[in-house]
Write a structure and sequence with these properties.
Elements lengths: L13 E5 L4 H12 L3 E6 L2 H13 L5 E4 L5 H14 L5 E4 L14 H29 L2 E6 L12 H21 L4 E8 L21 H9 L12 H8 L10 E4 L13
Parallel strand pairs: 1-2, 1-4, 2-3, 4-5, 5-6, 6-7
Helix pairs in contact: 1-7, 3-4, 4-5
The structure holds NADP nicotinamide-adenine-dinucleotide phosphate and D-gluconic acid.
Length: about 270
């Protein structure tokens, strides 16, 4: 029987993390590398791929960076073929690339709504579709979709994001349902409120030096009474990328410091 620790080992695996040059994607890829995997990442901007390669090198990781847009089916197909040739077939895909637009719904244009859906929902479909054939051939694969609190909850100004992340939860369940027989597991991670550039506007200090009201709101909504860090997601991601989770399929693992369990801080 294998040791429990060895079931988390990713030696020999190739992990592709979309939008992995900084933020959550960078932390997840770093965790996979520390568990033994070879890292591949992409971004739409060449300068960010360059910066990402430098950041991985600083961590002692020899990553492979590619420039492509996850919403462009042609670019994705060509890039996956290139990655398979230059590095090898992808064993672990993390659909991390994502954007948010905080605009009241009645002021949002359909073009803005579509752009969020395109990157946050169509992108994961296009990426998964591109890696599935090799995974089906190998009869093994892990797909991790980065979902959100907004896969479960709504809030003002984030209609497109919530629609996309709710859809991503169901895409996760459907990939699990459709490809489980090929020993492919598709799960989600639902991060709580994590301190990254994406959430920086919600944490900006007020002109008098006090906390942003949204920052205070999140502290009060989180039993852990703090924002999460990208590092908080590393262990859960290694679990879902490794054979330790081979019978976990179609699940969204919320890593939220308890937000979804909590009604919120009682007024004093
Ligand atoms: P971030 O700091 O904004 O990073 C997102 C990454 O995705 C960036 O590298 C971005 O590159 C890339 N990207 C955007 N559009 C792309 C495209 N079309 N093709 C390729 N790459 C693209 O965000 P984050 O906070 O690390 O979030 C990462 C993921 O976690 C997102 O899916 C987000 O929705 C989700 N999430 C975040 C939080 C949180 O609290 N931070 C919580 C729950 C879920 P550019 O810089 O070039 O745009
Ligand atoms: C927002 C935030 C969120 C988080 C995250 C929560 O404006 O409410 O940006 O949507 O980024 O996805 O899990």
């Amino acid at each position: 029987m294998k040791s429990v620790a060895s079931t988390f080992d990713l030696t020999g695996k190739i992990a592709l993390v979309t939008g992995g040059s900084y933020g959550i994607g960078f932390a997840l890829a770093t965790a996979f590398a520390r568990a033994g995997a070879t890292i591949v990442f992409n971004d739409i901007r060449p300068d960010l791929v360059e910066a990402g390669l430098e950041a991985y090198a600083k961590e002692g990781i020899k990553a492979h960076g590619y420039v492509f847009d996850v919403t462009d089916e042609g670019q994705v197909a060509a890039s996956i073929a290139k990655i398979e040739k230059e590095v090898g077939a992808v064993d672990i895909l993390v659909n991390n690339a994502g954007i948010i637009k905080r605009i009241p719904m009645h002021e949002m244009t359909a073009a803005e709504f579509r752009q969020v859906i395109d990157i946050d929902l169509n992108g994961p479909f296009i990426m998964a579709k591109a890696v599935l054939p090799a995974m089906m051939k190998k009869k093994a694969g892990k797909i991790i979709n980065i979902c959100s609190m907004m896969s479960e909850l709504g809030r003002e100004t984030v209609s497109a994001y919530a629609a996309a992340k709710g859809g991503l939860k169901m895409l996760t369940r459907n990939i699990a349902s459709e490809y489980g027989e090929y020993n492919i597991q598709c799960n989600g991670i639902g991060p709580g409120y994590i301190a990254t550039p994406q959430t920086a506007p919600l944490r900006e200090k007020q002109s008098d030096g006090s906390r942003h009201p949204f920052d205070s709101f999140i502290i009060a909504k989180t039993p852990a009474a703090r924002w999460g860090t990208p590092e908080d997601l590393m262990g859960p991601a290694v679990f879902l990328a490794s054979s330790a989770s081979d019978f976990v399929n179609g699940h969204v693992l919320y890593v939220d410091g308890g937000i979804l369990a909590y009604i919120g801080k009682q007024p004093k």
